[in-house]
Design brief:
Elements (H helix, E strand, L loop, with lengths): L10 E5 L17 H10 L4 E3 L10 H9 L4 E9 L8 H17 L4 E6 L18 H22 L2 E4 L10 H9 L7 E5 H6 L4 H8 L3 E6 L1 E2 L1 H10 L3 H6 L3 E2 L8 H9 L5 E5 L11 H14 L4
Parallel strand pairs: 1-2, 1-10, 2-3, 3-4, 4-5, 5-6, 6-7, 7-10
Antiparallel strand pairs: 8-9
InterPro entries: IolE/XylAMocC-like, Xyl_isomerase-like_sf, Xyl_isomerase-like_TIM-brl
Pfam families: AP_endonuc_2
GO molecular function: isomerase activity
Length: 304
């Protein structure tokens, strides 16, 4: 007889539109937003993210009503940025960020997930820019991200958490460490995505142990090592890699989530751990059974 793992008393689990195959505000291949809300609640989650701006209702009162009557609460909003381009993109970036930050604040959430822009087209694989930043671009990325963190905190009361992501300039363990070393902990925290970190060669437990004080948020997903090897060999961009099934249902992939969650619990701080199983595009009836099984798996890991 095996004993149950210790309860993860500091970890608040949730899910996101991403786990329902939602990548865009509107897309005929995606489930309607009300179906997502119905099913994420039915699967046993209490916390959700907003997903792409415009997918869920953007009127704060309506969104509050739709989530509350399903017993759901919002943990974060998400923005994409290209801050390594420097001050020239600030006004355009802030217009985009401020709209999403306002809605995020109005839901009662306290985090804004910031994803750097892609260096190659997510669908075609075409090169949009050099995958390696120059020293000057690194300076712009770090200083402008610090500025974003300060502005978002001062104006909206939110904490930015930067999300290392495949096919962006903040991806590998080396680039994540470089980014953290060059940014102010008071302004910039990290959203550690276990799937993307593994996709880019990292170990999430080692990351938590190495720079746990910088981690402000978690995304939970797993990578299929066999498919990842094919993706690397074929040089696939992230979108087609997802279509091939590189992100898989736990616990069938890597990293094992129980030790990741246990390491996060040892940090001694409250953390969200939001399930994000990239599945775009996917059949509309596929997400709910996976979400139910994933929620049961996380309970078995101690996430009550």
């Amino acid at each position: 007889m095996t004993s149950s793992p210790p309860a993860l008393t500091r970890i608040r689990v949730g899910s996101a539109p991403d786990s329902w195959g939602v990548w865009f505000p509107e897309d005929p291949l995606q489930v309607p937003w009300d179906r997502f809300l119905d099913e994420v609640a039915e699967a046993g989650y209490e916390w959700i993210e907003l997903g792409p701006y415009g997918y869920l209702p953007t009127d704060p009162a309506r969104l509050a009503d739709e989530t509350a009557r399903r017993g759901l609460r919002v943990s974060a909003g998400t923005v994409f940025t290209g801050l390594h381009h420097g001050p020239a993109v600030w006004e355009q970036t802030w217009e985009h960020v401020s709209r999403i930050a306002a809605l995020t604040r109005d839901t009662g959430a306290e985090h804004l997930v910031v994803i750097p822009s892609f260096w190659r087209d997510d669908k075609t694989g075409g090169m949009l820019e050099d995958p390696v930043l120059t020293p000057a671009q690194w300076r712009e990325l770090t200083t402008q991200t610090e500025r974003l963190g300060r502005e978002v905190r001062e104006r909206y009361g939110l904490r930015i958490v930067v999300h290392p992501h495949a096919d962006t300039h903040v991806d590998t363990p080396e680039n994540v460490a470089r980014f953290l070393d060059a940014t102010d902990p008071e302004s910039v925290s990290l959203c550690l995505d276990t799937g993307h970190y593994a996709y880019c060669g990292g170990d999430s437990v080692e990351a938590i142990e190495a720079f746990g004080e910088r981690i402000g948020y978690l995304h939970l997903k797993q990578v299929d090592p066999r498919v990842l090897a094919e993706v690397v060999a074929d040089g696939l961009p992230f979108g087609p890699a997802v279509e091939r099934g590189v992100m898989c249902e736990p616990p069938s992939g890597v990293p094992a989530l129980e030790p990741v969650l246990a390491a996060a619990q040892r940090l001694g701080v409250e953390l969200f751990a939001i399930v994000e199983q990239d599945m775009y595009p996917c059949p509309p009836d596929r997400p709910l059974p996976i979400a139910r099984r994933t929620r049961a798996y996380l309970r078995a890991c101690g996430a009550r």
